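We close this part of the discussion by returning to an individual protein. In the encoding step, the backbone of a single protein was reduced to a row of integers, each denoting a local shape. The sequence in question and its structure tokens are set out directly beneath this paragraph.
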Amino acid sequence: MLQEFLCLTIFFNKFFFSKTKKMIFRISVGLCFSLGLTLIIKTGFSSFLTTWLCFNNIAYTMWSLLLLYELYDRDQINLTYSNSLLFYIFGLFFYTSCTIPVFGLWEYIRNNQNSYLQNLNVIHSIFNVTMYLSFSIGFIKEYQFAKYRKTNQNIYGR
């Protein structure tokens, strides 16, 4: 989970250029990291994972929306279906925002096997598959763009 946090922090950090959005991003990174350390010190790893995971999912949702707003504001990157970044952002956004209830109720779900809330695992599975499908489409778009660019470089000699 720490690796996920670090990778997403690096991923999102390279796209924020406006001072305000970069400051919001950095403050939320600091809060997430501080909360993680505090939870480890106070509770060990018992409740650390679900609490930190919920908080991080909220942060990732906010980062996704903030990045979409940053890209819209800059108007430098074309937000179309041919842009792989759009698929990465949407995949992460839908997964993190829709699985917050699942992870928020994780202990209750695990301890009450007869609860109707067991069905929340289906929601998690659906959005997990959706996220990976979205990432896959993004990888395909990235590959197609690289192939297109390489072909055009060969044609025009650049």
Summary: Residues 103 and 127 are 13 Å apart (CA to CA).
